[in-house]
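Q: Hi! First time doing this. I have a protein sequence and I read that you can turn it into a structure. Is that right? Here it is:
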Amino acid sequence: MAEAGPSFLMTVEDVFRLNRGRLVMASGRIERGRVRRGEEVALVGSGTETTARVAGIRHGGLEVGEACAGANVGLLLPGAVPGGPERGQVLAAPGSIRAHGVFTAEIAVSAEDEGGGEVRTGDALDCHLRTGAVRGVVTLPPGLDVLRPLHLAAVRIALDRPVPLECGQRFAFRRHGRAAGSGTVTRLLGRLTPPHRPNRRTPAPDHYVSDKPPAAPPPLPWTSTGKHTPNAEGHGPRP
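A: Yes, that's right. Below is the predicted 3D structure, encoded as structure tokens:
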């Protein structure tokens, strides 16, 4: 990627297969940074985190050597890239962004006449994150039973599949097929552990992959001093 400045990131909007599948062209708008022919990029999203080398760049119907932020381009990649590309994924500088399945966000619910409605813990929202749409289950903060139209709150959202996310990223959400509000990602909590898939009747679970080390397990029921000393039957401490 570029030696200085923001790291490259492009959202995949469309995908075209060329030369009988030997090449695939991922098209979209470069959000930031720049990309050059021959560079390695990461494909992130929909459970995929892999890398591929850019075989070519098409911009305005021409082959170019590099492209910068703001340009609508098509990146040519090998046709055998595992897991994609597909709409909603991103191509980015390797290691610059990861897919997450759970995050906190500050959301604002639209007015009722604009599609907003009451939101409760366990409700499902269709979150539109860049060019992808993914279902997410919302958990309201403690003490808040319902989030009403024209109000905002800091909530936790568990998605049904990991998607590329960054702090500060804005998104819109729909409910019952209507635009219902918008939000901003405030914290990335982890990646959803398969095969669990949350639904609207189940509050967001707590078992997510995290970078933090696991907590120490609780002591065994029969342990009083931290040392297991079985009795003659082997079921507990000696009297």
